[in-house]
Automatic annotation (TrEMBL):
Designated name of the protein: CoA-transferase III family protein
Source organism of this protein record: Mycobacterium kansasii
Name of a matching Pfam family: CoA_transf_3
GO function terms (MF aspect): transferase activity
Keyword Hydrolase: no
Family: Belongs to the CoA-transferase III family.
Keywords: Transferase
PANTHER family according to UniProt: L-CARNITINE COA-TRANSFERASE (PTHR48228:SF6), SUCCINYL-COA--D-CITRAMALATE COA-TRANSFERASE (PTHR48228)
Keyword Transferase: yes
InterPro entries, A to Z: CoA-transferase_III (IPR050509), CoA-Trfase_fam_III (IPR003673), CoA-Trfase_III_dom3_sf (IPR044855), CoA-Trfase_III_dom_1_sf (IPR023606)
Length: 257
C-alpha cells in the first residue's frame, strides 16, 4: 500500500515497499483489545462472544484522514493543509546515514537557526513563515542537509531535541536495541526459546503501568506443547487416556512436555 504523494504538484509517487507489514502489527493489537472486550462482555452477561476482524477495515480506519482529504480534493475542494509543518529526511555523516527533522512553527525555525549557528536564517524571507517554508521546501531541505551532513544521526537528533525541536535518527532494526529512549522505557526484554540457543529480544508489553505488573513473558509455544495440560485441566481427561490417544496418533504432544 502506497499512500505517498506530492501535495503541491500531485505527482504520483513511485512504488515503495516498506519492508514491514503494518496491517499485521496493528491488527494484532486491535484483536487483543477485542479479546478483552469479549471477556468483559462475558463477565457482565455470562454469554460468550464471536469476534470477527477484517484486516482491511482496520487499516482503512487508520487512514481515515487521508481518505477524506483526498476525496475532498477530488471533489474540487479548496487546497487542504492539515499540517503546516515541514518534515525532512536529511543525510548525515557516514554511509547511508539519515535523520528526520520537523519544523512545526516560526518559533521552532528560529530555534533551528540558532542550532545551525546561523541566526540570520531566522529572518530569511524564504523561511520566516510557514507558508514561505512550504513554498521553498527544496531550499529549506538543502539548508538542513548542509548541517546534518556534518553530524552523525544521533548527534543531529540530540542537538535538535535539546533545543525543543522534533528530530530523530534513522534506526535500522539492530539499532533499536540500543536506542536510549526505548531503553529508558524498558520496551525490550530478553526471552529464551527452547529451539534457539541464544536469548532473543522481545517487546516487554504494550505499555508500562504503575499498578499493573508486566504480563508474563514466554516464547511462542511449540506445536503440541500444551496438549496434556489442555486435555487434563480443561477437558478433565485422565493422564492414562491422554497418553493412549497420543500413542494412537489421535493427539500430538511436543517432545519433553
Amino acid at each position: 500500500m502506497d499512500v505517498r504523494g506530492s501535495p503541491e504538484g500531485r505527482r504520483p509517487a513511485p512504488f515503495y515497499d516498506a519492508t514491514t507489514i503494518f496491517p499485521d502489527h496493528v491488527v494484532g493489537r486491535v484483536v487483543a483489545i477485542l479479546a478483552l472486550a469479549a471477556l468483559i462482555h462475558r463477565d457482565r452477561t455470562g454469554a460468550g462472544a464471536h469476534v470477527h476482524v477484517s484486516q482491511a477495515e482496520v487499516v482503512v480506519n487508520q487512514l481515515d484522514t487521508l481518505f477524506v482529504t483526498e476525496a475532498a480534493r477530488a471533489a474540487g475542494a479548496a487546497e487542504i493543509r492539515d499540517d503546516i509543518s515541514v518534515h525532512a529526511v536529511c543525510p548525515c555523516a557516514g554511509d547511508d546515514e539519515w535523520c528526520v527533522i520537523s519544523i512545526r512553527s516560526d518559533d521552532e525555525w528560529r530555534c533551528a537557526a540558532l542550532v545551525f549557528d546561523k541566526p540570520e536564517l531566522a529572518e530569511d524571507l524564504r523561511f520566516a513563515t510557514a507558508e514561505a517554508r512550504r513554498a521553498n521546501r527544496a531550499e529549506l531541505s538543502a539548508v538542513l542537509a548542509a548541517w546534518t551532513s556534518t553530524h552523525s544521526p544521533e548527534q543531529a537528533a540530540r542537538l535538535m531535541q535539546s533545543a525543543g525541536l522534533a528530530a530523530g535518527p534513522m534506526n535500522r532494526p539492530p539499532d533499536l536495541l540500543e536506542d536510549p529512549q526505548l531503553a529508558e522505557r524498558q520496551l525490550f526484554s530478553t526471552m529464551v526459546h527452547p529451539l534457539i540457543a541464544r536469548q532473543m529480544p522481545a517487546e516487554t508489553g504494550p505499555a508500562p503501568f504503575r499498578h499493573i505488573p508486566h504480563a508474563p513473558q514466554r516464547p511462542a509455544p511449540q506445536a503440541g506443547q500444551d496438549t496434556r495440560a489442555i486435555c487434563q485441566e480443561l477437558l478433565g481427561m485422565s493422564p492414562e487416556h491422554i497418553e493412549q490417544l497420543i500413542a494412537e496418533g489421535v493427539l500430538f504432544a511436543a517432545a519433553g512436555t
